[in-house]
Design a protein that fits this description.
Strands 1-4-5-6-8-7 form a six-stranded mixed β-sheet, sandwiched between helices. The chain has helices at 6-15, 17-30, 83-98, 160-170, 181-190, 199-207, 209-223, 225-268; strands spanning 40-43, 46-47, 57-58, 61-65, 70-76, 111-117, 135-141, 148-159. The protein starts with 5 loop residues before the first helix and ends with a helix. It is an alpha/beta fold and 269 residues long. The longest helix has 44 residues, at 225-268.
Length: 269
């Protein structure tokens, strides 16, 4: 079962809070963030409409860490071009919901968003040395000196495609950007379908008990007939949606080509 499919990841996370805790710690460790998660409490992922014109926001996973911090997790195999706007909107809504009546603004804990994406989520301005980063951590900072303005917003974008590419090229899990072994182990499980050398997954399973538990849980999940059927339906939906987008892009390119040819003909007359 492919954990990059949002349904599969959601089902896995909801049924295995200890594995989710391990994954979160690996992500924070890789980002060199001094935060140790001891436990997570899953919450309702639906954020109801505030007004008639609002869009209903449904997250893949929403949880509360043991210190009360709210965390949002999403898995995206498509719609990368719109993901930044979607993530900011979901974060803003979740952050506003966490403040209780009478609570001081200064006492509110941050809201953390983690988005697994199948491609690059590039910044507005890229430095010359920037490649497709595997793990991008975004916060509100000063434009000139980089000072953190507030820790209320913390966004993690994890490029699954870049990770699988780096591992396949190196034929090893020991890649430069994965500074945390557990982060690399976890991503190898999540992107298992794209990893060419399956021994990498097997070695990760043997070396880390948390990975062994996760792989076993995924196998049990795959054996559940109802879950497998729902997973296949969601997988088909994603496939046809991506195909529809690809066909649409092709049509636009064809139309642009025809327009260019007509314009060239008119200029020659």
């Amino acid at each position: 079962m492919d954990l990059r499919i949002d349904f599969a990841f959601k089902t896995f996370a909801e049924g295995n809070p200890e594995s989710l805790t391990s994954l979160l710690n690996a992500i924070f460790s890789n980002a060199r963030i001094n935060r140790i998660v001891k436990s997570v409490r899953l919450k309702n992922p639906n954020m109801d409409k505030k007004a008639i014109e609002d869009k209903l926001s449904i997250l893949d996973v929403r949880a509360e860490l043991d210190d009360g911090t709210d965390i949002l997790i999403e898995m995206h195999l498509h719609g990368i071009s719109q993901i930044k706007s979607k993530i900011i909107r979901s974060w803003a809504r979740a952050y506003s919901e966490e403040l209780e009546v009478g609570q001081k603004y200064t006492s509110q804990l941050p809201t953390i968003t983690i988005a697994f994406v199948d491609g690059a989520v590039d910044p507005i301005e890229k430095s010359q040395n920037t490649t497709d980063k595997i793990h991008r951590v975004c916060m509100i900072t000063d434009k000139d000196d980089g000072a953190i303005f507030t820790e209320a917003l913390e966004l993690h974008f994890i490029n699954m495609k870049a990770f699988a590419k780096a591992v396949n090229e190196a034929n090893s899990i020991n890649i430069k950007e994965a500074t945390s072994d557990m982060f690399a182990y976890w991503l190898s499980v999540i992107t298992e379908k794209e990893i060419v050398n399956k021994d990498i997954i097997e070695n990760a399973r043997k070396e880390k008990e948390a990975i062994q538990m996760a792989v076993s849980a995924i196998a049990r999940q795959s054996e559940d007939k109802a879950v497998r059927q729902a997973y296949q339906r969601r997988k088909d939906e994603i496939f046809f949606h991506k195909k529809e987008l690809a066909d649409k892009d092709a049509t636009i390119e064809e139309q642009a080509k025809i327009i260019a040819e007509l314009r060239s003909q008119l200029e020659q007359k």
